[in-house]
Amino acid sequence: MSDAGLISDVRPQRERLGLSQQALADLVGVSRQAIIAIEAGRQVPSTSLGLRLGRALRCGVEDLFKLKSDQGLTARLAPPPERHAARRPGDARVALAEVNGRWVAHRLPPDPTLSADGVLARAITDRTAVVLPLDATERLRQNVLVSGCAPILGALAQRVGRRRADGRATWVPAGSLRSLDLLAEGLVHVAGVHFSEAAAGEDNVEAVRRRFPKERMLVVNLTRWRQGLVVAADNPLDIRSAAEILRPSIRLAMREEGAAAHKLLAALLAREGATSRVLGGPFAAGHAEVAQLVRSGAADVGVAIESVAIAAGLDFVPLTEERFDLVVPATFADTAPVARFMETLDDAAFRAEAAELPGYDVRISGHVTTLEAA
């Protein structure tokens, strides 16, 4: 007996344990052909066989068989950062939005304070999946995905929802280069970037022009900030410059190579005749995590923005001043969801809130630089 409304996940559960079809068949007392038919969805097992399969595969029956939903959406899956390439428990929850006419899903961390837009039902390929939405599709189409490493993006995204009943935004934490990658692949609507002149010999505008030479792009300022060394309160190790990070005993909170903080440090170390390869320490996924590692004593120093050091009660040694800009394709800027998001930059409540956040300068927030297609 088959059931067109049932999805079988027996195969991935079997492969998870490294069992062959014959081995599983022997464990549950059926033929290999029966296992093949069950995995293909051509046969629905009896209740007793379903329970035996769950016992053999060390999972519940609900993990082996799911009902298909008429509301399932086929979505592109954004790749996780390389550091998180492996699946983690709880990452079936996703943020969901429509980008350039296609549904896009970003896996969420197992954080109960983050509300999901959908749940992954089943994979189609490594980069596409069926997603069961947890909200009306019209509401999900209002969602704007904005990537970047600035913590203030979280406050901005929340302000969009408070300001407009027909507006939504979701912050996708990512470094500058990864944000541009996501934007180029059509996996976000807006990318946040900061490239200091000390780090790369170019500013944000030049980096965007080089990455999107054939597209009309808008570069919109969100804030200015200082980036530098985050150290313990009162700076007990007396770390005053990048050169002092080269001391053998210093533990550095490392950042991924695509992060602007990594590029800044690499450029400064190059002036000292060294590279970041000589350094060691725990990995930090973003500015806030750098501060957490230093505050906990797991690292002695890290490169991050001033605001996270202030918030954590740590000392800060400034290295450079930067712009944090939002990059938007002009074709996206003309759509209602993205237009609503960008309008929030001029919202009086957002500006008042941002002005009270230490380490952020929003005096030129909203200033637009337009890059014409070559």
What does this structure look like?
The chain is of the alpha+beta class. It contains 16 helices and 15 strands. Among the domains are: 62 residues, 434 Repressor (Amino-terminal Domain), CATH 1.10.260.40; 187 residues, 3-Layer(aba) Sandwich (D-Maltodextrin-Binding Protein, domain 2), CATH 3.40.190. 33% of the residues lie in helices and 25% in strands. Strands 8, 9, 10, 11, 12, 13, 14 and 15 form an eight-stranded mixed β-sheet that branches. The model has no long low-confidence stretch (mean pLDDT 87).
Number of helices: 16
CATH topology descriptor of the domain at 188-374: D-Maltodextrin-Binding Protein, domain 2
Task: Give the radius of gyration.
Answer: 24 Å
Global outline: globular
Q: How many β-strands, per DSSP? A: 15
**Could you say what the CATH architecture of the domain at 188-374 is?**
3-Layer(aba) Sandwich
Structural category is alpha+beta
Q: What average pLDDT do the residues reach?
A: 87
Low-pLDDT residue spans: none
Oligomer: single chain
Helix content: 25-40%
CATH class of the domain at 188-374: Alpha Beta
Task: Tell me about the largest β-sheet.
Answer: 8 strands, mixed
Q: Ends: how far apart?
A: 60 Å
CATH H-level superfamily of the domain at 188-374: Periplasmic binding protein-like II
Proportion of beta-strand residues: 15-25%
Keyphrases for this structure?
374 residues, single chain, alpha+beta, globular, 8-stranded mixed sheet, 434 Repressor (Amino-terminal Domain), D-Maltodextrin-Binding Protein, domain 2
